[in-house]
């Protein structure tokens, strides 16, 4: 029986398999009174991009379990083209971290260099038809950059788990 798209294989999938980028022109509908795009709108677009990556990597539905971190580095303005780039950084048994880079560029001047405006790290859990976690393919690392991304994702995961344990211990006392 041949492999099908979305089917889990023993050898796993590289980050390039599920990599996604999206682009949207920002309008006044997404802006605050200063003409800057609301941070929540940027988070929503980043989550949508990450969700597409998670579904592609896992071969089925995946839900956002955590937004581990989002750092805003520069404002986004009405009329900017907002671009998101996302890929799987780390994959466990049922969950994965998806990193998202957000860039902006004025819509009317392609000669202006894009600006890195935000980065985010989302944790997704693949789910079955009943909403229970399901196994996902392993991540096949192909480059030094992907090794670095995986190592940093493992550090963020360790911090999340340690924080959760510390809070649970604190509540028990």
Spell out the key features of this protein:
Thiol Ester Dehydrase, Chain A; 5-stranded antiparallel beta sheet; 31% helix; 173 residues; 3 helices; alpha+beta; 5 strands; disordered N terminus
Summarize this entry quickly.
This protein is of the alpha+beta class. It is built from three helices and five strands. 31% of the residues lie in helices and 31% in strands.
Write up this protein.
- There is one protein chain.
- This protein has helices at residues 15-18, 39-58, 144-172, and strands spanning 20-25, 62-72, 80-91, 95-106, 115-126.
- The chain has 173 residues and is an alpha+beta fold.
- Strands 1-3-4-5-2 form a 5-stranded antiparallel β-sheet.
- The longest helix has 29 residues, at 144-172.
- It is globular and about 50 Å long.
- The model is unreliable at 1-8 (pLDDT under 50).
Layout of helices and strands, plus pairs?
Blueprint: H1 15-18, E1 20-25, H2 39-58, E2 62-72, E3 80-91, E4 95-106, E5 115-126, H3 144-172
């Amino acid at each position: 029986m041949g492999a099908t798209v979305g089917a889990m294989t023993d050898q796993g999938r590289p980050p390039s398999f599920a990599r996604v980028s999206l682009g949207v022109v920002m309008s006044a509908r997404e802006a605050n009174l200063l003409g800057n795009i609301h941070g929540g709108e940027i988070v929503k677009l980043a989550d949508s991009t990450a969700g597409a990556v998670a579904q592609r990597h896992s071969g089925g539905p995946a839900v956002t379990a955590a937004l581990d971190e989002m750092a805003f580095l520069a404002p986004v303005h009405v009329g900017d083209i907002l671009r998101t780039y996302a890929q799987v950084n780390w994959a466990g048994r049922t969950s994965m971290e998806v990193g998202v880079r957000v860039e902006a560029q004025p819509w009317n001047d392609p000669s202006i260099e894009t600006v890195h405006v935000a980065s985010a790290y989302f944790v997704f859990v693949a789910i079955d038809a009943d909403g229970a976690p399901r196994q996902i393919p392993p991540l096949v690392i192909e480059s030094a950059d992907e090794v670095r991304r995986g190592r940093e994702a493992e550090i963020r995961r360790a911090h999340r788990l340690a924080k959760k344990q510390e809070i649970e211990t604190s509540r028990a006392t």
